[in-house]
Amino acid sequence: MRFLVGVTRNALRNPNPAQKATFESAMECTRSLIEFYMYCQYDSHNGNTLNLIEDALCRFHSTKGVFLQYRAGKRLTAEAKDRRTELCAERDDELKANQKKSAAHRQWIRDPWKTIIESEMAKFIEEGSDFNFPKIHLM
Fold it and tell me: What pLDDT is attached to residue 3?
């Protein structure tokens, strides 16, 4: 466990600027979970170590949302795929309606749709996912 943060940071080094905030949040979550685990292994505890354990656990819970997109179940994934298909159909209908326009105009229509579809999918999966499993609650 004590090597996990170093290995993870090395494996995911040099994130691009768009990924940097997500990467740092993932590293903070991983770091706080490992701190929690390491503090819990102490042979005895006092008020200070209990405060450190509680602080590490609070930081873990405040940053674990970065992994929420990977908690989607099969049903939610299928629903998200259907929603993406609907959005792509709307985009295609709009592009078809502007078929006689210039390529630059169609690209002008297509670019915002890419952002809309990506953000809609992320929001859909985040709203439907959760961390409701026993091992998290046992901590």
Answer: 78
- CA distance linking residue 75 with residue 53, whole number of Å: 36
Structure tokens at 101: 């326009």
Residues 98, 105 contacting (CB under 8 angstroms): yes
For 76-106, the pLDDT digits (tens) are 778 888 888 998 898 888 888 888 888 888 8
CA dist., res. 66 & res. 18, Å (int): 14
pTM, to two decimals? 0.57
- Tell me the two tokens of residue 26: 């993932």
Distance in angstroms (rounded) separating the CA atoms of residues 26 and 63:
7
Alpha helices in the chain (DSSP H): 4-11, 17-40, 47-63, 74-97, 103-128, 134-138
- Residue spans of the domains in the chain: they are 1-70, 72-139
Q: Which backbone phi and psi does 124 adopt, to 5 degrees?
A: -60, -45
CA distance 29 to 56: 9
